[in-house]
Amino acid sequence: MDGDTPPHARDIQSVRTALGTSFDGLSDEEARRRLERYGKNILEEEEISRFRIFIKQFQDFLIYILMAAAVIALLAADFKDFVVIVALILVNGLIGYWQELKAESSIRALKKLTESRVSVVREGEIRQVPSPEIVHGDVVLLAEGDIVTADIRLYESYGLAVDEATMTGESVPVSKDHQAVLDPGAQPYELANSLLSGTTVVRGSGRGFVVRTGRDTYLAGIAARAQEASPESPFTRAIRDFSMRYAVLIMIILVLVGTVAFLQGRELVGIAYLLVAQLVSAVPAGLPLVVTLVMVVGALALSRKQTLTRHLPSVETLGSATVIASDKTGTITEGRLAVQDDVALDSRALMLAAALCNDAREGTGDPIDVALSRWVGEYGELRERHPRTWVFPFDTAMKLMATANEVDGRRRFFIKGAFEELAKRAENRDDLAALEERLNAMAEGGLRVLAFGAGDWQGEDPDAWRYEIVGLVGFLDPPKDGVRESVITARKAGIRVLMITGDYPLTARAIAGEVAIWKEGESVLTGGEIESMDDDALYAALATATVLARVIPEHKYRVVRVLQDRGEIVAVSGDGVNDVPALKAADLGIAMGSGTEAAKSVAKMVILDNNLRVIVDAIENGRVIVDNVRKVIYYLLSTSISEVVLISTSIFAGFPLPLVPIQILWINLVTDGVQDKMFPFIKEEGDVMRRPPKPPARQFFERRQITRILIFGLVMGMASFLVFEHLIFRFPYETANAIIFTAFAAFQWSNGIQAQKEHEPFFVNIRRSLTINPLIFLSVLIGLVLQLAAIYIVPSWFNAVPLAPEQWGYVALLAVVAFAVVETIKWVEYLADRAAG
Ligand code: ADP
Ligand code: MG
């Protein structure tokens, strides 16, 4: 924008001309032109170039070591090895490059799905435009719950208030007024007639011109800290840390092996070369990337089930959720209400209150209001005849709304809301007891009941309101299909389901009972009770409570915190601005697709189909994802350890090398290298929702996992050593070595096939064993073809000799033994589990 005076200190007409726009917005053509010319409304171009991704594949500690190995091979005048190693480095790099590109583009596609949208006026029409496409001069419409994504000069505002905590750290809402006159030098936090990018509308509505976008906004100036989390998640970082520690452990073992080998008088260059090859294949360098892929594939699967992931690592958190705290209306129930019953003390007044204290327009609006507008016969006429002069909008904390209307020349006051709230000020106290009895009868039947009041206008102040309760109306809001089954599934899976609602306790309990959330013996906690308890008492009460009624958003936030402080992993659903604190605090904030931008922006996930069933399904998916990560970790580590055991034992026993360096590197490619790519596609094992949740810290390395890895590594390392020992006395070294070379790859393949299922032995439910991931068989086939090519077409490259048919018997033997070892471990665990029930 030209000129020196900033937009907040100019009158709106001059801002408009300077921006070259109008109150009807820009034309599509002009918006496109500006977007091209001035760039997207984002803080930073996050696209990483393909070249950088390619180069990254070679910036890895283990690749450096491999390069060192290539140099050693040259020194040892082993030219063939040099070529093969360089080829392996390149192949590895290309696979990694291709994998990462795929992951990147999937992550970008996922981001696109959850991109925030902004209401703008273009060509005189209201449009929803992705926030990055906003340009200066755009006319933006703002309403409660919207996120401001560019700097805006207002020219209309109605009771507008904004949360500027991201800019000022102050979370008290700040009022905005388009008419405010400001000094050119006003500070960002003094701009009453402007909205700054990064803030949230908490109340009211407004309109304005976009004056600055992207890197020109105030937010960009202080953006470093407001930046999105780096693409490397805490979780992948944890995996990386683990790989590092594991690498150190392996190095210590290898140094020991190297020392022994040296003392035995083996050739120095040969030893160095062997150790390097072993290190490269024993450390699962590809693990962080494979884990990311498992999560990306999982997140894509979730998106097909109406669940969008805004934060990738949360798919893994999903798997360990222990509590679901769900909204009632709309998530558990249909949210499409219909009047079912009523109690009228004064029918005409009740009709007037229902029609006038109401915001429904042409069948849209708050479901309660819509239901009432359908129920009152002459809704339209009543509203036209009795114009509204004042309104107190619905307030979640007071649970009521009120209006003033002209009725037959008099100014009348109408109110509707929660019975207890209305009863506090009602003048017809004698009727209350009888009304409450009727209310409870309706509520016990699962109806949501509202009370209505009417009186003469006394003033705006709630303390001045005068009215009598004139009747009750009961609404039917039936539970959604599938919710009951999902609640039962969740309970079996050890997940507690809490219903959190602003509704009346009896109503909430009746509905909760219908969907199996509440059972005889469990309690209902009210907002009032929550307020009177300290954190410990609250946590204790939550042990038996499944329904939280008459709860306001602050209570919801507190419940989430108290549960989390005591180690629970909480999934919370919400949609409004006032759900933001709870959604933010929760391990897993889940916003509704229909909810506000503010809720979506802090949520880790967004569900498009608002239904508790979708949340439970997502948890099920999350558990499968966690299982798959655990399975790939098992596979990579168990095969590595068997290799380390074989080589170390052979050296300690003073034997010749069972595998030469180039073979070790090759095996790594035809086993891990091909098969770990298939682990993201393992389907669910069948018992995911019949196990209790695992705490996040123990998801990947619990006792069983470690035991399995060690047993497999030790037993198979020793078994292959014994076979080698046997072969070396019967065959020339070259043949013995070539047999072990192929057998080693083969038994890892059978381990890979076994690793697809971890809770069920292969021979229990064979059908599932074969169908849980057909891709694993494909990858074994690829590995086999490569191995056959290596030993029959270019054996000399690998120091190998072609195998005679009967020598394949040894290969088969080790493959079967490996299969049997895992099968035995599984049976022992399986039977132990069954015995334990
Ligand atoms: P829920 O958790 O079911 O969404 P709400 O917070 O929407 O509950 O509503 C809480 C209570 O506030 C309701 O039980 C009702 O008494 C009152 N209430 C809800 N909507 C309105 C409305 N539009 N007008 C007046 N009162 C309302
Ligand atoms: Mg509600």
Automatic annotation (TrEMBL):
Main location group: membrane
Compartment annotation: Membrane
Every Cation-transporting P-type ATPase N-terminal domain range: 6-78
SMART domains on file: Cation_ATPase_N
Top-level taxon in the UniProt lineage: Archaea
Keyword Iron-sulfur on entry: no
Transmembrane segments: 58-76, 82-98, 246-265, 271-302, 709-729, 774-795, 807-825
Membrane topology designation: Multi-pass membrane protein
UniProt-listed InterPro entries: ATPase_P-typ_cation-transptr_C, ATPase_P-typ_cation-transptr_N, ATPase_P-typ_cyto_dom_N, ATPase_P-typ_P_site, ATPase_P-typ_TM_dom_sf, ATPase_P-typ_transduc_dom_A_sf, ATPase_P-type_domA, HAD-like_sf
UniProt keyword annotation of Transferase present: no
Gene3D superfamilies reported in the protein's UniProt record: Calcium-transporting ATPase, cytoplasmic domain N, Calcium-transporting ATPase, cytoplasmic transduction domain A, Calcium-transporting ATPase, transmembrane domain, HAD superfamily/HAD-like
Keywords recorded for this protein, A-Z: ATP-binding, Membrane, Nucleotide-binding, Translocase, Transmembrane, Transmembrane helix
Protein name from the UniProt record: Cation-transporting P-type ATPase
